[in-house]
Design goal:
183 residues, 9 strands, 24% helix, globular, 4 helices, Rossmann fold, 6-stranded mixed sheet, 3-stranded antiparallel sheet, single chain, binds 1-O-pyrophosphono-5-O-phosphono-alpha-D-ribofuranose, alpha/beta
């Protein structure tokens, strides 16, 4: 297959992603049987994952989104997270699942767990497609996890480099020269 410029190799194919999302959706549907859940997508990266995950759930659910500041085109993060756009929904007494494309240092998910946890939901869990354990700086629970991956810059299926590559249907490793050039 001819890969786009800047892409080194495919890490997870469309088929692998599809099977993983079916597994996660089946697990969530079983765990929350008889209950309604609120899926909270973290923009922008989670929009494709959330769209596919939500359509595989067999339990009643609603979706909402929030946006936080994290790092942009650089590979570093300060650990400071700010909320840019909050939820429309009041989450008190609701079963909330944070849906993230990737957990890297863990700062973003940890911040969101504290922020949303303080609003007294009935329960709060996290469903994450990708985790880079080697990069973790803070311990943060992930209740439903797709893949653990090595420390490469990955793009596609919602993940970007400078807002590019988000709509690739697979998850791919970016060539280091792409991001090293901008540093
Ligand atoms: C990514 C990802 C997570 C965060 C994880 O977002 O979607 O929200 O980084 O990193 P952390 O574990 O080190 O906190 P990004 O800042 O790339 O924004 P985007 O989702 O809009 O692409």
């Amino acid at each position: 297959m001819q890969l786009p410029d800047g892409i080194d190799q495919i890490l997870s194919s469309q088929e692998e992603i599809k099977a993983t999302i079916q597994r996660l959706a089946a697990q969530i549907s079983a765990d929350y049987e008889g209950q309604e859940v609120l899926l909270v997508g973290v923009l922008k990266g989670a929009f494709i994952f959330l769209a596919d995950l939500s359509r595989q759930l067999t339990i009643p659910h609603v979706v909402d989104f929030l946006s936080v500041s994290s790092y942009g085109a650089t590979a570093t993060t300060s650990g400071e997270v700010r909320i840019i756009m909050d939820l429309r929904t009041f989450i008190r007494d609701k079963h909330v699942i944070i849906v993230e494309d990737i957990v890297d240092t863990g700062y973003t998910l940890s911040y969101l767990q504290q922020l949303l946890g303080a609003r007294k939901p009935a329960s709060l869990r996290a469903c994450v497609l990708l985790s880079k354990p080697d990069r973790r700086r803070v311990d943060t629970p992930i209740d439903y996890l797709g893949f653990e991956i090595p420390d490469h810059w990955v793009v596609g299926y919602g993940l970007d480099y400078s807002d590019m590559y988000r709509t690739l249907p697979y998850i791919a490793v970016l060539k280091p020269e792409v991001y090293l050039e901008s540093q």
